[in-house]
Write a structure and sequence with these properties.
Layout: H1 6-29, H2 48-61, H3 64-75, H4 79-105, H5 111-121, H6 133-160, H7 164-194, H8 196-208, H9 221-230, H10 236-250, H11 261-279, H12 312-315, H13 340-345, H14 379-390, H15 395-426
Length: 427
């Protein structure tokens, strides 16, 4: 029998996961940042705070060349990982274009301001936070789930401010981010099969030293982070409740990074003893059986994107003066430089009644409170999580795990309610 090293097994796993990922992406998840987002519905009366949050996420995406090139140098010899990373960079570039397009379409930023932000972010490079490939997989897994919640919580604010364009863009982007998270999560789970102790040690080290990308490169980052925390988009509480704890739960680890198997074995033994005791008692047999609800199989043939036809090639046909490099720099009627992005989309920026301040271009320290109290996930939160899972590799496995987690949570709640009642009865 041929012996395969752990590294060999992982390389085979990466390549197979890459092919499944690309198949699902091309079949169900591809979308066009120029034609699938209704930029004409960007709300010029949306708040300055909303624009600052969007600009912060845009700023992080500006380091995409570093995110891709420096990781590729580390994983160059792994075809599965390196090719996935290239595709990941392509998908992240669409996220950046969409958010940047909204800033321009809503009138919160001009083309000159966009270029100024771009210039201010180009002086520093992002560096890999960890120097081991497996630690970087753990880091990216954590970062992708955090990013999913960044966009999902930002969408809630955009909905409150009735900005249909931003809501549409963020909803599509958040599903992408959930699928990214699941790819890296599946990779960590696979590594745990072959090197559990080493993988868990790497995961703990990453959590102990985790910070979101851009912290040391983006001007005014600390101020921007306060805005994100104050609005409830992302802060310490969101990190613990929505990112760290769910990851540990997914990987069957407790808060001390210990496997839950021992506890599960004790629970199973207790259940077996209880079942044995119940079986020793004569029971009445019911003839009508039990009804079991079926979950959807997740095999819908309808793709997630709208398949809108891109107009980019039309815009590039000869004779279009706006694409002629010899023509003078095009401007709007107010003298502001035209946005190439909005020209491709085919709309003009909305006119705001009040200026919108950039934290990056001119940031003054503002005293802001900490993160607000956390609420339970709403139905749309859970729907987007489930949708991202269904569009990911190993969807069947994750569907089963979701059901098991929900069952365990229900048992925990019932036990807590019984204990509370017992405590009240003894008072």
């Amino acid at each position: 029998m041929t012996q395969i090293s752990v590294q060999g097994r992982m390389e085979d796993f990466f390549y197979r996961e890459l092919l499944k990922y690309l198949y699902m992406a091309e079949q169900k998840r591809r979308w066009n940042p120029f034609t699938d987002i209704p930029y004409e519905h960007a709300n010029p009366d949306s708040s300055q705070t909303l624009a600052q949050c969007v600009e912060t996420f845009c700023a992080v995406e500006m380091y995409l060349p570093d995110f891709t090139s420096k990781m590729l140098h580390m994983i160059r010899r792994s075809r599965g990982r390196s090719w996935f990373h290239i595709n990941w960079g392509y998908e992240e570039s669409k996220h950046s274009l969409t958010l940047e397009g909204w800033l321009l379409a809503s009138g919160h930023r001009t083309e000159e301001q966009r270029q100024a932000v771009e210039a201010s972010l180009s002086t520093l490079e992002w560096e890999l936070p960890f120097d081991h490939p497996r630690q970087m997989v753990c880091y990216t897994m954590v970062q992708e789930l955090a990013t999913f919640w960044n966009y999902r919580n930002l969408e809630k604010i955009a909905a409150q401010e009735k900005d249909l364009a931003l809501v549409a863009g963020l909803r599509i982007i958040s599903v992408d981010e959930r699928v990214h998270y699941n790819f890296f999560r599946n990779t960590v789970k696979e590594w745990m099969k072959w090197d559990e102790a080493g993988t868990v040690a790497d995961l703990k080290y990453v959590f102990d030293n985790f910070s979101m990308p851009g912290k040391t490169q983006i001007p005014g980052y600390d101020e921007a982070a306060k805005v994100l925390a104050k609005t409830g988009i992302y802060g310490p509480r969101e990190y613990i409740k929505l990112v760290k704890n769910p990851i540990l739960e997914d990987l069957k680890l407790d808060k001390d990074f210990k496997k839950l198997e021992d506890e599960e074995e004790r629970d199973n033994a207790a259940k077996a003893a209880k079942l044995e005791a119940e079986n020793s008692v004569e029971k009445i047999s019911l003839t009508n059986g039990h009804a079991v609800a079926k979950n959807g199989d997740g095999n819908s043939r309808n793709p997630f994107n709208s398949h809108a036809v891109s107009q980019v090639l039309e815009n590039l046909k000869p004779g279009g003066g706006k694409w002629d490099s010899r023509a003078p720099i095009p401007t709007y009627a107010n003298g502001r430089k035209r946005s190439a992005f909005l020209d491709v989309v085919g709309i003009e920026p909305a006119q705001r009644t009040a200026p919108s301040k950039s934290i990056i271009l001119a940031h003054e320290a503002e005293k802001l409170g900490g993160s607000r109290g956390m609420s339970d996930l709403d139905n749309l939160d859970q729907h987007l999580i489930n949708l991202g899972d269904e569009l990911s590799n190993n969807a069947d496995e994750m569907r089963t795990e979701r059901a098991q987690i929900q069952k365990e949570r229900s048992i925990t709640r019932e036990s807590r309610m019984k204990n509370n009642k017992l405590f009240r009865d003894t008072e």
